Amino acid sequence: MVLADLDPSSAKLLIGILGPILPAFSFLFILRIVMSWYPKLPVGKFPYVIAYAPTEPLLVQTRKLIPPLGGVDVTPVVWFGLISFLNEILVGPQGLLVLLSQQV
């Protein structure tokens, strides 16, 4: 489906879905960035697993493309930037989905 083909009601539905999901994942990746400063954290235990479990599958795949630079894993920063960009482009104040939802 192409964004330009969306009717306003579908755009509103996507805003309702992506609106909370994208900021939540941004927050999770911020937590992962902070967690990376403490490599001895038990990431399999509560409360760390809350940020670890949903983000690690994405990070594993990204680490295959972007290896650690100087021993520093930059993949959480890459994902945070990508998700922030998508959030702004799609559901930000001038986002594509917002503009499509306002069409008459």
UniProtKB/TrEMBL annotation:
GO annotation, cellular component aspect: membrane
InterPro entries in alphabetical order: CCB3/YggT
UniProt xrefs under Pfam families: CCB3_YggT (PF02325)
Transmembrane region(s): 12-38, 77-100
Top-level taxon of the source organism: Eukaryota
Organism: Nelumbo nucifera (Sacred lotus)
Keyword line: Membrane, Transmembrane, Transmembrane helix
Name of the featured protein: Protein COFACTOR ASSEMBLY OF COMPLEX C SUBUNIT B CCB3, chloroplastic
Keyword Ubl conjugation: no
